[in-house]
Amino acid sequence: MEAAMKTNQLSLRVGALALAVANTVFADEVPLHQADEIVVTATRFKESSQGKPVSITVITQQEIQQSAAKTVPDLLAEQTGIVAHDLFGSNAANATVDMRGFGATGGQNTLILLDGRRVGDIDLSGVQWAAVPLSAIERIEIMRGSGAVLYGEGASAGVINIITKAPEKMANAMTIGAMAGSYGTQGERVNANYFGQAAGINVSADHFVSDGYRANNRNEQSNAQADMRWLTEAGEFALKVGADRQDIRLPAGRQVQPSIGLNQLADPRGTRTPLDYASRDGNRASLEWQRDTGWGEFNVGFGYRDKNQKSYFDQGGFPIYNDADLNVISVTPRIRILQPLLGLENSLVVGLDWYKWDYHKRISDLPGNIDQPHNTVRANQENTGLYLYDTLRLSALTTLSGGLRSEHLHISANDTFDPTAPGALFGSGAPAGTQTENQYAYELGLRHQISAAAALTGKFSRSFRFANVDEIYESSPVFTQQFQFLRPQTAKTMEIGLEQKFARGNLRSALFQTDVRDEIHLDPFTGGVGNTNLPPSRRRGLELDAKWRATTNVTLGAGYTYTEAKFLEGTFPGNVFFGTNISVAGKTVPLVPQHKLDLTGSWEITSQTRFNGVISYVSKQFMDNDEPNSLGINIPAYTVADIKLTHHVGPWNLSAAINNLFNRQYFGYAVRSNFTADRYEAYPLPERNASVRLEYTFK
Q1: C-alpha to C-alpha distance for 173 and 422, rounded to whole angstroms
Q2: I need a surface site. Which of 8, 229, 276, 420 has the fewest CB within 10 A?
Q3: What is the pLDDT of residues 296-351, one digit of tens each?
Q4: Percent of the chain with pLDDT over 90
Q5: Which pLDDT score, from 0 to 100, does residue 373 have?
Q6: DSSP state of 311
Q7: The CATH number of the domain where 466 resides is what?
Q8: Burial class (CB in 10 A: 0-12, 13-18, 19+), 259
Q9: What's the total number of domains in the chain?
Q10: 3-state secondary structure string, 55-92?
Q11: Which residue range forms the structural domain that includes residue 414?
Q12: How far apart (Å, rounded) are the C-alpha atoms in residues 91 and 205?
């Protein structure tokens, strides 16, 4: 306890020192003029990011183009406070992002949006990152520790909004490109844009195929999308449609068990599941109408998305095959009223979010038997959220914001079991069940401009998360199927931050603390497998990031994150393999590195040639399933470096990148065995690899 108190005091002192130093060093410097960023996630309406009492980072289109990152998770992993957990390193096919130390549940606590509309579903399939290639993205907005009021459940860590390119903001042109890289990687892409006086369309398509770093890890992905806009005196209409497909082979982890001399990591590229695979097909469409009036703005959106997922796991001759369909429709009307309040400048956003999911999953032993599944799971879920968010300008220097949200959930689920179906010998069906929940979120924030170049922000908020259908459909301790309805997770966050601009750059620093109750998570320590509400936990930390234009042609950046994630109290029931009543009080939450450091650099060699690089350090982490911190082996710390060189010649654009420049052997995810005390599985990531891309633009 004494050591933990010293660590907490040290982190607070470091944060306070950083705030003081930033204010002292840069207070007298005059900031250069910078154009306002347009940020949708701040209030769900387009407006400048300046003056908002929330921690917002915007990754611009230029930064996306210059980065050596190949995927959105790679790009996000370069940002302060964000860690990516990737299983295979193959075009982010099985990647999640974790913001502010949620570890294994980071993917369910960081809300991912595409053009302001959530892309997560009521299953655990995760985000299909390749559905939107980097070339189609205008910018990415990161809002840390905020978003539950405006967007609802699953935003305890924050919100990441991916904004695609709008046709009215692009030149009329067509770009075609091709790429090739290590491990048999190749890809093609095309983008075409046209915008007339009041209407236009942007179309893009992308194809990627790679043998992968690991054996049995071939990955093929393709996607296409179109964005159509109509500008009228009555407002703007936006119709967006898209489709994506993925086929991937699954090599599983490499097993290690020191007590018997087992070490498959000696062959990091091998596989022990040569027959396993998965596929995913998805479609999406949305229609939004926005109109400006004399008193404010009105927006109404309609969305539809569906997907089909198939997976086969051989399991050493005891196979299982899943075929799942899911579709969701949504309606999201909202208004922003721009009218003075008590004589002060004021903006009030009021809205409603309605989402309805239909889930249908068939389970069999082999693909050829799926027409007679032994289990058929159906679930229907409906979420209705009402919210309001107000921003009041108290003075020229001070802004107050606050909001409330109430959300209602209803889910019904049933499981039909056919004992005559192939593979049904030891099966069972789960009794039907329903769950109804009501939760609320709130947020209160204050921003004060302490000088022309510096602003102090503070915020307090409450968020929540509901368990999804894959988290409630599990086995009991005696391995019978059941729907294990769980309590909603809640979290309270406090944060203080400083934003500082100076003549050649900027600095952002923040101290945060999040207390989580009833966290929803897989519990591997009970007999059998199942999900549970974890004991109370706390995340606290420090974020520092800065950019500095060292010379006219060289820009440097740095980001440091200190995160402490601990269980405050409680025990796990345990089992015969690990012992019973295992105390986790004071233990570290798995998959949360305490330290993370990112260093970036960009050198404009000539007006046509640019060199970019990033070095990332991630400290050691406890493995997934090791909540008691008793395995004695951690995910080792690792440092990786990526570089990229781009060159423009007229309509031609050539880029070459090397990832993992120093050829490190490492892994960012590992899971402790449920039943063998010293066994774990690690997922090695690619060693040094290179790629080249050539593009041509017709105008």
Answers
A1: 55
A2: 420
A3: 899 999 999 999 999 999 998 899 999 999 999 999 999 999 999 999 999 999 99
A4: 70
A5: 96
A6: E
A7: 2.40.170.20
A8: exposed
A9: 1
A10: EEEEECHHHHHHCCCCCHHHHHHCCCCEEEEECCCCCC
A11: 2-698
A12: 16
